[in-house]
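EI: anyone free to look at a 298-residue chain?
SC: sure, send it
EI:
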Amino acid sequence: MLSYYLFYPILYLLSLLPLRILYLFASFFKFVLFDCIGYRKKVILTNLRNSFPEKSEKEIQVIAQKFYLYFCDLIFEIIKSLSMSYKELERRFHIPEELWNILQGFADKNQPVLVAIGHHGNWEWAGNAYSVKAQHTFYAIFRPLHNKGFNKIVEKVRTRFKTKLITDRDVIGAMRKIREQNVLSATVFLTDQTPSGKNMYWTKFLNQDTPVFWGVERIAHKFNYPIIYATFIREKRGYYKAKAYVLVDDPKKYPEEGAISELHTRAIEAAILNQPETWLWTHRRWKRKKPGNMPGQS
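SC: here you go
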């Protein structure tokens, strides 16, 4: 926990600065991290080239440069989250009225929901922006960081308002308890992470064989919860707009194995194609190779 006591006070004081000042730091950080050090440049460019084989090298480099600045902006936006007021968050993260109506429709029926998102736009601001006004209690599923100090800082960011956390170690058990307590819940899954172990669904994603978590699909079937898909579009520096719709209204309509997994994979793929520079290209998303079995089997 030494890292927490060392870094949290510094990060909190930094978060008190206006975002326009933090973006100056972000621009300098981009110069050092990518232009000088070349942080994960090989991974980023390989991911982009494999995902967009139809694009020229010039187009790939343009996306990469936009991503480098977005990535550094995102770091300082997350730092800002440590002290950002909800009023400022609401001004910078717009949730259209029709999206509130979707949630309200399920709340009126006392219906818990699942929410599928990806590492696109600013998902950290999204969690706090939704949780304050929604009648649903938002539960974000997360994988704890190895460093306990930095993990505590991330938890502070994600739970500053009303969002609660569920670790990925016992999602079903935690959701059972939430249901038994009659909590109107919205459980949020980051669907574009690389699965661990062998239990996964294989599909084509951004022109590449890609493993996908079974989690959203199997939990939707187990609890018979509808699924909302949400993505977060960056309109300009420091401003985002949410976009969401009902992806699955009734899981029973999709009995075929892999059907729901395909739906949420195609949804995040469409969001990335629409705004490729605001997805997390630093991830080693394709480090696993597909085994020699039938398409779509785990």
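EI: The mean pLDDT is 93.
SC: 👍
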